[in-house]
Design a protein that fits this description.
The complex is a heterodimer.
Chain A (H helix, E strand, L loop, with lengths): L13 H12 L27 H9 L3 H6 L16 E5 L14 H14 L7 E10 L1 H13 L4 E8 L17 E5 L3 E2 L12 E5 L2 E2 L2 H8 L7 E5 L8 E5 L5 E6 L10 E6 L5 E6 L3 E6 L6 E6 L9 H10 L5 E5 H5 L7 H4 L8 E5 L7 H9 L6 E4 L18 H5 L3 E4 L6 H13 L5 E5 L5 H9 L9 E5 L5
Parallel strand pairs in A: 1-2, 2-3, 3-4, 4-6, 5-7, 6-8, 8-10, 9-11, 10-12, 11-13, 12-14, 14-15, 15-16, 16-17, 17-18, 18-19, 19-20
Chain B lengths: L10 E5 L5 E5 H4 L3 H8 L7 E3 L5 H16 L5 H11 L5 H14 L2 H15 L4 H8 L7 H10 L1 H4 L4
Parallel strand pairs in B: 1-3
Antiparallel strand pairs in B: 1-2
Helix pairs in contact in B: 3-5, 5-6
Classes of the chains: A alpha/beta, B mainly alpha.
Protein name (chain A): F-box domain-containing protein
InterPro entries (chain A): F-box-like_dom_sf, F-box_AtFBL13-like, F-box_dom, FBD, FBL13/AtMIF1-like, LRR_At1g61320_AtMIF1, LRR_dom_sf
Protein name (chain B): SKP1-like protein
């Protein structure tokens, strides 16, 4: 323990200034207008320290927690002014910008967090983030949670290494002020029998292991106004079948990579979200996510990892694609499409994306199967924009035998982008096919290394074009 | 402020601490919650409203801000944003503090926000020695006390001299 003391000699005086000012703020006659003591704002005077308390508080609210706490050293008057800040963001992560000169021991950080709660005045704590990799006792964390709830916490983010299985305070699960809850917790989530998040709009659970079907189902059924749900690398091994039915949900993020979980399709999670707008599903098919009733969906991003695994995930991929059939903008990975290469009569089994205007093929698009892509394009009759975000090269062994021309080529496809463009066989072959058959194409954007662009441009412009108005643009590669 | 359209022609007079009078359209004055509350009560807008702690130079700036925001339609948010960032540009600290005090007193939230933000931006990421210098804050800690405050709040001082 390195702190000089834990008990402040005096409580911060922020409130007083505010009260003084409030008395003069709502005058009902003009005679009442008065400011507090005359402020001399001439050169060389310490004006900032003499501002009304609420103005100092307002200025501090625009500072990071670190900057706000650092004002404590300006003068004795400033020592405790920071204790009224309503957004508290504490993390012990290494700072890349400033290499450490001294070894900052973990224990000091947890003590410091404790100290912040000890000193904070009576005002609201609107948001609290504690991010630490130091092993921490459950009771200490619970005391912080309880303290923040006494201050009407709205946004709580805890990313901590609990020493043992935590049992979070029961009243957290019925907290009325809570709008955002983000938990990064490498333990089981033990939930009480009483849960009612009456105002919770955002729930993010990372690395959390769900305990069993009933309690998990109970948790998701107790968020009547939830709009955003993120389940990132969660453990589903104790769950067999659950249903997540949240009509208010607008954004759903599922990330579920194989290294964090075991078993293939060992858990079925049925998702009903009639008002969902944004979906991101990056899955290794540990969980069989089944999507129902996503009639409001606007954009979806689907990435199923490792299509080469022994198990067959084809029905799940087809299921997910059917689930997002109403989507306007779809982003999909090559691995996902790979699951479909061996499907017989794919054209009959893939749904038609009647609303889809925008298709993005992303992540290492190394294994592009033209066959699957052509079927997907055929099933996208309104497609306007097609983008190969990471370029592609072909591994298909069927010698580029394309079937018929997708209907969107002649009716709607206006823009095509290809990144990492070079003149290899697959790309040139696809380009010839595209330029010849895409009769309404307006722009072809090729992002490439800037070698001999003029020469390339001349060669490309000589290719036969079905659309006379199509412009070919050679652009530099975007650095992400 | 759409609600003030019917009163568009009404004007009221504000008087600065140094005795200068400003004739202000009512819908411009309504940018100030203080003036709005006064007008909502029984006060007659025929009176001269004295603002004894706001000098003419500051009041002119404040009213310029209010006029721009009162006249701009809600669709021109982008234009207002660029007006706001230009408004405080190159302003000296003295004028900025006068403005933040006036905005606080007259309860003009938007102006209070941009002025407080501007002051915060001046503090941000700077070593405390520099902040003391800019704002003329006198360090009344003894060296021992200062070292103790720094040690107690060591987390916040990581990477700072």
């Amino acid at each position: 323990m390195t702190f000089r003391s834990l008990i402040p000699l005096f409580r911060p005086q922020m409130g007083q200034g505010k009260r003084q000012r409030d008395d003069s703020v709502h005058p009902h006659s003009f005679a009442n207008i008065e400011l507090s003591d005359e402020q001399d704002v001439g050169d060389g005077n310490d004006i900032i320290s003499n501002l009304p308390g609420n103005v100092i508080h307002h200025i501090l609210s625009f500072l990071s927690t670190k900057d706000a706490i650092r004002t404590s050293i300006l003068s004795t008057k400033w020592e405790y002014l920071w204790t009224s800040i309503s957004d508290i963001d504490l993390n012990d992560n290494l700072n890349d910008t400033f290499p450490r000169t001294t070894k900052w021991e973990y224990r000091n950080f947890l003590d410091f967090v404790d100290r912040v709660f000890h000193f904070h005045d009576e005002s609201v704590i609107k948001s609290l983030t504690i991010d630490s990799s130091e092993p921490v006792n459950s009771s200490l964390v619970n005391s912080w949670i309880s303290a923040s709830m006494r201050h009407n916490i709205q946004e709580l983010t805890l990313s901590l290494c609990w020493k043992a299985q935590p049992v979070l305070p029961c009243h957290l699960f019925t907290c009325q002020s809570l709008v955002t809850l983000k938990l990064f917790m490498n333990w089981s989530l033990k939930v009480p029998s009483q849960i009612h998040f009456s105002n919770l709009k955002t729930l993010e659970l990372s690395y959390v292991t769900f305990s069993d079907d009933n309690s998990t189902q109970h948790l998701f059924s107790s968020c009547p106004v939830l709009q955003e749900l993120a389940l990132v690398h969660c453990g589903w091994k104790n769950v067999k079948t659950i249903m997540i039915c949240i009509p208010t949900l607008k954004r759903l993020t599922i990330e579920d990579e194989a290294i964090w979980a075991r078993g293939f399709l060992s858990c079925v999670t049925k998702i009903y979200a009639a008002n969902l707008i944004h979906l991101r599903c990056i899955s290794s098919l540990v969980v069989d996510f089944r999507l129902y009733d996503l009639s409001s969906l606007v954009d979806a991003s689907i990435g199923l990892c490792d299509g080469s695994s022994a198990e067959d995930g084809t029905p799940q991929v087809l299921g997910l694609l059917s689930g997002v059939v109403n989507v306007k903008k779809l982003s999909i990975t090559s691995d996902t499409l790979q699951y479909l290469t061996l499907v017989e009569n794919l054209s009959d089994r893939l749904p038609t994306f009647y609303n889809m205007a925008h298709l993005e093929l992303n992540l290492d698009f190394y294994g592009l199967s033209f066959g699957v892509l052509m079927v997907l394009l055929e099933k996208s009759p309104k497609l306007e924009f097609l983008n190969f975000e990471q370029g592609f090269y072909d591994r298909d062994e069927d010698g580029y035998t394309l079937g018929r021309v997708p209907s969107c080529f002649t009716s709607s496809l206006k823009t095509v982008g290809i990144a990492y463009f070079d003149e290899d066989d697959a790309k040139m072959w696809f380009l010839r096919f595209l330029l010849k058959n895409a009769t309404v194409l307006e722009r072809l954007m090729l992002r490439c290394y800037t070698r001999d662009q003029q020469k390339l441009s001349r060669r490309l412009n000589k290719l036969p074009k079905g659309s006379k108005s199509c412009v070919i643009e050679l652009l530099p590669l975007l650095r992400s | 402020m759409a609600s003030s359209i019917e009163n568009n022609n009404e004007k009221l007079t504000l008087k600065s601490s140094d005795g200068e009078e400003f004739l202000v359209e009512k819908h411009v004055a309504l940018q100030s919650t203080l003036l709005q509350n006064m007008l909502d009560s029984d006060c007659s807008s025929a009176d001269v409203i004295p603002l004894p702690k706001i000098d003419a130079r500051t009041l002119a700036l404040v009213l310029g801000y209010c006029k721009k925001h009162a006249d701009a339609s809600s669709s021109k948010q982008g234009e207002l944003n660029s007006f706001d960032s230009e408004f405080l540009k190159d302003m000296d600290m003295g004028a900025l503090f006068n403005l933040v005090l006036a905005a606080n007193f007259m309860e003009i939230k938007g102006l209070l926000d941009i002025a407080a933000q501007k002051i915060a931006d001046t503090i941000k990421d700077k070593p405390h020695q520099e902040v003391r210098e800019i704002f003329h804050v006198e360090n009344d800690y003894t060296p021992e006390e200062e070292a103790a405050v720094r040690e107690e709040n060591r987390w916040a001082f990581e990477g700072f001299p």
